Amino acid sequence: MSEVEKRLAALEAQVAALVERVGGGADGPATPPEGAFWALDGLKQRLPADDDHPGAVLYTGTVHVAGQRYDWQYGRAVDDLLADGWAELPAALSALAHPVRLRLLREILGGRQGTGELAGIEELGTTGQLHHHLRQLTAAGWLRSAGRGRYAIPAERVVPLLAILTAAGR
Fold it and tell me: Which residues does UniProt call coiled coil (predicted)?
């Protein structure tokens, strides 16, 4: 067997192992294991059995970071989501669309909540830039002042923030 054939065989074995691990292949995706969609199954049980019902969206999480526990869930009917005005959403979303602000949120969620601690992180820029980003996140509701130069992510925003990051591919 030539070197190329050996390498090709090794690659084929790796691909086969990956397909086996994630499920799927030539016959399509594998059937998920029993109970894999327990949250989705619970949501479906709460909806009308009518096939014309547009459905609902649910996100939930239990998070334990920096000595804090956040248990949260939120659900909305699709009709309500589509009927709501979306004009206020760009401000909340654009506040997250900056690498320094995302880094700030990660640091604050991880327990570094004081401006002195945050100012020590070189990648966050000057003190003036740091305060600018903190103001942007606070105005958009992603942060709140916790007194004396300290910031916290409001408890009701922790799971939604992580859900947004998950949806964005994080």
Answer: none
Length of the chain (residues): 170
Exposed e or buried b per residue across 111-143, where buried means at least 16 C-beta atoms within 10 angstroms of its C-beta: ebbebeebbeeeebeeeeebeebbebbeebebb
CA distance 106 to 41: 32
Q: Identify any residues that bridge with 114 across adjacent strands, giving them in sequence order.
A: 150
CATH number at residue 63: 1.10.10.10
Mapping DSSP to helix (H, G, I), strand (E, B) and coil, where does residue 72 land? strand
Residue 13 falls within a domain, yes or no? Answer: no
Could you report the per-residue pLDDT of 98-130, keeping only the tens digit for each?
A: 999 999 999 999 999 999 999 999 999 999 999
The count of structural domains within the chain is 1
| Measured CA distances, 146 to 29, 51, 109, 115 (Å) | 47, 47, 13, 11
Asked if residue 68 is part of any domain, the answer here is: yes
